[in-house]
MBL fold metallo-hydrolase (Longimonas halophila), 219 residues
Amino acid sequence: MTIQSFTFNGFMTNMYVAHREGEAAIIDASCASSAEQQQVDAYIDEHDLTVTHLILTHAHIDHILGCAHLESTYDQAFYLHPSGTPFYDQAAQQAQAFGVTIDPPERSTIPLTPDDTLTVGGVRFRILHTPGHSPDSVSLVADEEDIAFTGDVLFQDSIGRIQGLPQTSKADLMASIRTKLLPLGDAMTIYPGHGAVTTIGRERKQNPFLNNQVPGFAE
Ligand SMILES: [Zn+2]
Ligand SMILES: [Zn+2]
Protein backbone atom coordinates (compact mmCIF):
# COMPACT_ATOMS: atom_id res chain seq x y z
CA MET A 1 0.00 0.00 0.00
CA THR A 2 1.26 3.48 -0.86
CA ILE A 3 0.80 6.24 1.70
CA GLN A 4 0.98 9.86 0.58
CA SER A 5 1.02 12.34 3.42
CA PHE A 6 0.17 16.03 3.39
CA THR A 7 0.51 18.58 6.20
CA PHE A 8 -2.00 21.39 5.94
CA ASN A 9 -3.68 24.35 7.63
CA GLY A 10 -2.53 26.56 10.49
CA PHE A 11 -2.64 23.64 12.95
CA MET A 12 -0.11 21.67 10.83
CA THR A 13 -2.48 18.72 10.59
CA ASN A 14 -1.59 15.65 8.56
CA MET A 15 -3.89 14.02 6.08
CA TYR A 16 -3.22 10.84 4.16
CA VAL A 17 -4.11 9.21 0.88
CA ALA A 18 -3.65 5.45 1.32
CA HIS A 19 -3.93 3.56 -1.95
CA ARG A 20 -3.41 0.25 -3.68
CA GLU A 21 -4.55 -1.17 -7.01
CA GLY A 22 -6.19 2.11 -7.99
CA GLU A 23 -8.39 2.39 -4.88
CA ALA A 24 -7.79 5.09 -2.30
CA ALA A 25 -8.91 6.06 1.17
CA ILE A 26 -8.55 9.66 2.29
CA ILE A 27 -7.86 9.81 6.00
CA ASP A 28 -8.71 13.14 7.63
CA ALA A 29 -9.59 16.35 5.83
CA SER A 30 -7.06 18.95 6.85
CA CYS A 31 -6.95 20.57 3.39
CA ALA A 32 -8.38 23.99 4.26
CA SER A 33 -7.47 26.39 1.45
CA SER A 34 -8.33 25.86 -2.19
CA ALA A 35 -4.60 25.52 -2.94
CA GLU A 36 -4.35 22.67 -0.40
CA GLN A 37 -7.49 21.04 -1.75
CA GLN A 38 -6.11 21.24 -5.30
CA GLN A 39 -2.92 19.49 -4.17
CA VAL A 40 -4.92 16.52 -2.94
CA ASP A 41 -7.16 16.41 -5.99
CA ALA A 42 -4.11 16.61 -8.28
CA TYR A 43 -2.51 13.65 -6.51
CA ILE A 44 -5.70 11.60 -6.92
CA ASP A 45 -5.89 12.57 -10.61
CA GLU A 46 -2.23 11.96 -11.41
CA HIS A 47 -2.34 8.48 -9.89
CA ASP A 48 -5.68 7.71 -11.52
CA LEU A 49 -7.22 6.74 -8.18
CA THR A 50 -10.82 5.97 -7.32
CA VAL A 51 -11.59 7.27 -3.84
CA THR A 52 -13.55 4.50 -2.13
CA HIS A 53 -13.50 5.80 1.46
CA LEU A 54 -13.40 9.14 3.25
CA ILE A 55 -12.48 8.55 6.89
CA LEU A 56 -12.01 10.78 9.94
CA THR A 57 -9.83 9.77 12.90
CA HIS A 58 -11.93 12.26 14.92
CA ALA A 59 -13.91 15.42 14.26
CA HIS A 60 -11.74 18.16 15.76
CA ILE A 61 -11.80 21.30 13.63
CA ASP A 62 -8.28 20.90 12.20
CA HIS A 63 -9.21 17.48 10.78
CA ILE A 64 -12.50 18.51 9.16
CA LEU A 65 -11.72 21.80 7.41
CA GLY A 66 -11.76 20.12 3.98
CA CYS A 67 -14.76 17.83 4.50
CA ALA A 68 -17.23 19.87 2.46
CA HIS A 69 -14.84 19.97 -0.50
CA LEU A 70 -13.99 16.25 -0.36
CA GLU A 71 -17.64 15.19 0.14
CA SER A 72 -18.71 17.04 -2.98
CA THR A 73 -15.62 16.23 -5.09
CA TYR A 74 -15.72 12.48 -4.38
CA ASP A 75 -19.51 12.30 -3.92
CA GLN A 76 -19.59 10.41 -0.67
CA ALA A 77 -19.88 10.89 3.09
CA PHE A 78 -17.20 10.57 5.76
CA TYR A 79 -16.89 7.64 8.15
CA LEU A 80 -16.76 8.86 11.76
CA HIS A 81 -17.18 7.27 15.18
CA PRO A 82 -20.74 8.04 16.37
CA SER A 83 -19.54 10.03 19.39
CA GLY A 84 -17.99 12.54 16.98
CA THR A 85 -21.29 13.46 15.36
CA PRO A 86 -21.99 16.43 17.67
CA PHE A 87 -18.51 17.85 16.90
CA TYR A 88 -19.06 17.35 13.17
CA ASP A 89 -22.50 18.90 13.22
CA GLN A 90 -21.07 21.92 15.06
CA ALA A 91 -18.21 22.49 12.65
CA ALA A 92 -19.08 26.16 12.24
CA GLN A 93 -19.12 26.72 16.02
CA GLN A 94 -15.82 24.86 16.41
CA ALA A 95 -14.31 27.04 13.69
CA GLN A 96 -15.50 30.20 15.38
CA ALA A 97 -14.08 29.08 18.73
CA PHE A 98 -10.66 28.49 17.13
CA GLY A 99 -10.73 31.62 14.97
CA VAL A 100 -10.74 29.86 11.60
CA THR A 101 -13.22 29.80 8.76
CA ILE A 102 -14.88 26.69 7.37
CA ASP A 103 -17.20 25.70 4.60
CA PRO A 104 -19.33 23.42 6.85
CA PRO A 105 -19.84 19.82 5.73
CA GLU A 106 -23.32 19.03 4.47
CA ARG A 107 -23.64 15.25 4.52
CA SER A 108 -24.38 13.07 7.53
CA THR A 109 -21.45 10.89 8.55
CA ILE A 110 -21.39 7.10 8.28
CA PRO A 111 -21.01 5.53 11.75
CA LEU A 112 -17.65 3.78 12.18
CA THR A 113 -17.29 1.36 15.11
CA PRO A 114 -14.87 -1.40 16.19
CA ASP A 115 -17.23 -3.94 14.59
CA ASP A 116 -16.43 -2.54 11.15
CA THR A 117 -13.73 -3.55 8.71
CA LEU A 118 -12.94 -1.32 5.75
CA THR A 119 -11.23 -2.78 2.67
CA VAL A 120 -9.22 -0.45 0.41
CA GLY A 121 -7.56 -1.92 -2.66
CA GLY A 122 -7.73 -5.35 -1.01
CA VAL A 123 -6.14 -4.14 2.25
CA ARG A 124 -8.29 -4.73 5.33
CA PHE A 125 -8.41 -2.05 8.01
CA ARG A 126 -9.81 -2.88 11.41
CA ILE A 127 -11.05 -0.12 13.67
CA LEU A 128 -9.85 0.50 17.22
CA HIS A 129 -11.75 2.93 19.43
CA THR A 130 -8.94 4.93 21.07
CA PRO A 131 -10.66 7.72 23.06
CA GLY A 132 -9.11 10.18 25.50
CA HIS A 133 -7.91 13.07 23.32
CA SER A 134 -11.50 13.10 22.08
CA PRO A 135 -14.41 10.73 22.66
CA ASP A 136 -14.56 9.79 18.98
CA SER A 137 -10.88 9.03 18.33
CA VAL A 138 -10.36 5.88 16.28
CA SER A 139 -7.25 4.19 14.93
CA LEU A 140 -7.28 2.36 11.59
CA VAL A 141 -5.03 -0.70 11.56
CA ALA A 142 -3.93 -2.73 8.53
CA ASP A 143 -2.22 -5.72 10.15
CA GLU A 144 -0.97 -7.26 6.91
CA GLU A 145 0.80 -3.99 6.01
CA ASP A 146 1.97 -3.15 9.57
CA ILE A 147 0.52 0.34 9.28
CA ALA A 148 -1.84 2.27 11.53
CA PHE A 149 -3.44 5.70 11.27
CA THR A 150 -3.82 6.89 14.84
CA GLY A 151 -5.05 10.49 14.64
CA ASP A 152 -4.20 12.58 17.69
CA VAL A 153 -3.62 9.71 20.14
CA LEU A 154 0.10 8.94 19.90
CA PHE A 155 2.79 11.13 18.32
CA GLN A 156 6.53 10.93 17.92
CA ASP A 157 7.74 11.81 21.45
CA SER A 158 4.31 13.03 22.53
CA ILE A 159 0.66 12.14 23.05
CA GLY A 160 -2.68 13.72 22.23
CA ARG A 161 -3.50 16.96 23.96
CA ILE A 162 -6.01 16.80 26.81
CA GLN A 163 -5.91 20.42 28.05
CA GLY A 164 -8.31 23.06 26.78
CA LEU A 165 -10.48 20.70 24.74
CA PRO A 166 -13.96 19.37 25.54
CA GLN A 167 -14.60 15.78 26.67
CA THR A 168 -10.97 14.70 27.08
CA SER A 169 -9.82 12.04 29.54
CA LYS A 170 -6.23 11.42 30.56
CA ALA A 171 -7.16 7.98 31.92
CA ASP A 172 -8.87 7.01 28.66
CA LEU A 173 -5.98 8.37 26.58
CA MET A 174 -3.35 6.40 28.48
CA ALA A 175 -5.50 3.27 28.43
CA SER A 176 -6.00 3.65 24.67
CA ILE A 177 -2.23 3.87 24.14
CA ARG A 178 -1.23 1.12 26.57
CA THR A 179 -3.99 -1.41 25.96
CA LYS A 180 -4.78 -0.83 22.28
CA LEU A 181 -1.80 0.75 20.47
CA LEU A 182 1.28 -0.70 22.20
CA PRO A 183 0.00 -4.29 21.71
CA LEU A 184 0.07 -3.70 17.93
CA GLY A 185 3.76 -4.57 18.19
CA ASP A 186 7.06 -2.76 17.71
CA ALA A 187 7.10 -3.15 13.92
CA MET A 188 3.83 -1.28 13.44
CA THR A 189 4.35 2.02 11.60
CA ILE A 190 2.24 4.85 13.00
CA TYR A 191 0.90 7.63 10.78
CA PRO A 192 -0.20 10.30 13.26
CA GLY A 193 -2.44 13.34 12.95
CA HIS A 194 0.49 15.68 13.59
CA GLY A 195 4.25 15.41 13.22
CA ALA A 196 6.47 12.70 11.82
CA VAL A 197 5.74 9.08 11.02
CA THR A 198 6.98 6.79 13.79
CA THR A 199 6.72 3.21 15.03
CA ILE A 200 5.24 1.55 18.10
CA GLY A 201 8.72 0.27 18.95
CA ARG A 202 10.26 3.73 18.92
CA GLU A 203 7.53 5.24 21.08
CA ARG A 204 7.51 2.33 23.51
CA LYS A 205 11.23 2.94 24.11
CA GLN A 206 11.59 6.71 23.78
CA ASN A 207 8.27 8.49 24.21
CA PRO A 208 8.71 10.47 27.45
CA PHE A 209 5.01 10.11 28.30
CA LEU A 210 5.35 6.33 28.25
CA ASN A 211 8.63 6.18 30.14
CA ASN A 212 7.87 7.98 33.40
CA GLN A 213 9.66 11.14 32.24
CA VAL A 214 6.71 13.53 32.39
CA PRO A 215 5.23 14.55 35.76
CA GLY A 216 1.63 13.37 36.00
CA PHE A 217 2.18 10.64 33.43
CA ALA A 218 4.06 8.12 35.54
CA GLU A 219 2.75 4.61 35.39
ZN1 LIG B 1 -7.58 16.47 17.76
ZN1 LIG C 1 -5.31 17.50 15.34
